[in-house]
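As the next step, I selected for study one protein, both as residues and as discrete backbone shape codes, as given directly below:
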Amino acid sequence: MGRVMPIYQGIENLKKEGDSLQWGGPYLFKDGNFSYMPDGRALFSALTPPDQAVSNGKFYLSTRRGKQLNSMTFGSTDRLTGNRRRDAIFMAFEDAERLGLADGARVLLRSDTGEMRGVIQLAPVKIGTLQAYWPEANVLIARRTDPVSGEPDYNTEVRIEKREP
């Protein structure tokens, strides 16, 4: 793959669980070398993030979490959370308390696209949001792209319902 797509050079050396690759080497732009940028300096722009307010009674679900590319794990344990379940729905403590959901509660998530059964895992996530693994939560995501960047949108609004054990 590295020969065909030079940006992926080094991927051919990944042999065992835990091996990793970072684009640009282990230290991106070490020592402030931005020689490919105008005047050899990094350019930054102030941005205003879009308002992610959701409809009443819904949550904003994201499937791209933390330091995991697409939140995929290739082992039996998620190194970021220590989790062993692929149906985990990460929820803020405050939201769970408000809805009367305990850690381990069985739930059903519904979006305009589909539904997914999962298990609540209390986590330090932003109130009003949920996080889930990709591709498991893909059934909830509409096939659309961000109008500005053209990137696939891995997020959606969902309703959550408690399920009986």
Observations:
- The chain has two domains: 1-44, 59-162.
- Residues 1-44 form one domain.
- The chain is about 5% helix and 20% strand.
